[in-house]
Amino acid sequence: MKKTEKNTVKAEEIVDTIVTADTPATDKPATDKPETDKAATDAVNDAVDVALKAAGVAVSAYSKAIGHADEATSFADADEAVKTLNTAIKLAKYTEWLDAENPFEAAIRELFVTEYKISVSKDQDGNPTSAALKPAKVIVDLQDFENSVKDRKLANHPNWVNDMSKLRESLILRAYYELYNGSEAEKKTAVKLFATANNISTTIESNGGMPKDALSMTTLKTAIQDVVNKILFIPREDKQNVNSLTVTKAEVWFILLSAFAYNRRTGVITCPRDDTMRAMVTQVVHFILTGNHPVFR
User: In this structure, are residues 192 and 153 in contact, taking their beta carbons and an 8 Å threshold?
Assistant: First the structure.
């Protein structure tokens, strides 16, 4: 089968076009709007158009190659083209958000970015028969967004990623505590043993650095609020030192109920990874910011 000629742009070439690449170092907070280079913005958007066409051609070629000798090579080409497309789309969206008064607020309000994937159709025996390029929505990774910018911090506080990781560990301890079958004393002993075995601290830093019991729902709520404050802080009109984005028990329960997954094959409860934790907390901030609510299916 004749190999389709590639018409792609490399991911690293797209990265070089991001508008902030030539932005001078600055200590300005995220609310200070930068001057956007229109030419660079246009280049990023043009890269999306080019990458979308190239990905479509590559996936179509892979679909035709299924069952033929060049199937593996065609899939590799299609996979690379889709990765390049997703990079282009992501950086175009980042460029758009960076032009907002507060980039993190803009990203959290929109919440999702488009991510394409190769969707493979199979016959009744499980054999692939065709492939198509299909879009999906994924929650923006705020850490990736912030890391894409040189010499500029977008969050309200630089320690938000580290605190998010500590919060994840505290949620794991809370869930382990609730699920352990035993007396109160036995539960706490089991949690300490579990924490030691997994290098997890049984306290979380909150309320001015005072160590708090990680098993307390009140402390978890405060810890989530601390992380939210470090991600995005919009002062209340009557109290400028208080964040108008207030965490309630509803947000605590959303995270607790969403964080863990049950594996029906192994019977094991899977704990959240750091990227899952970032997605959940980002969605929590979105809920508070927009008034939207969780979707149940």
Answer: no
237-248: b (≥16 Cβ within 10 Å) or e: eeeeeebebebe
pTM for the full model? 0.80
For residue range 46-98, what is the model confidence (pLDDT) as tens digits?
Answer: 999 999 999 999 999 999 999 999 999 999 999 999 999 999 999 999 999 99
What residues are paired with 139 via a beta bridge?
112
Burial (Cβ within 10 Å: 0-12, 13-18, ≥19) of residue 186: exposed
Report CA torsion sign: 36, 105, 90, 45: negative
How far does CA 262 lie from the centroid of its chain? 21
Mark residue 135 as left, alpha or beta (left: phi above 0; alpha: psi -120 to 50; beta: remaining). beta
What's the CA gap between 214 and 92, in Å, rounded?
Answer: 40
Distance separating alpha carbons of residues 201 and 248, to the nearest angstrom: 24
Rounded CA separation 18/49 (Å): 15
How far is residue 128's CA from residue 71's CA, in Å, rounded to a whole number?
11
How far is the C-alpha of 151 from the C-alpha of 149, rounded, in Å? Answer: 7
Q: What are phi and psi of 134, to 5 degrees?
A: -130, 140
Half-sphere exposure of 231 (CA within 13 A, CB side): 34
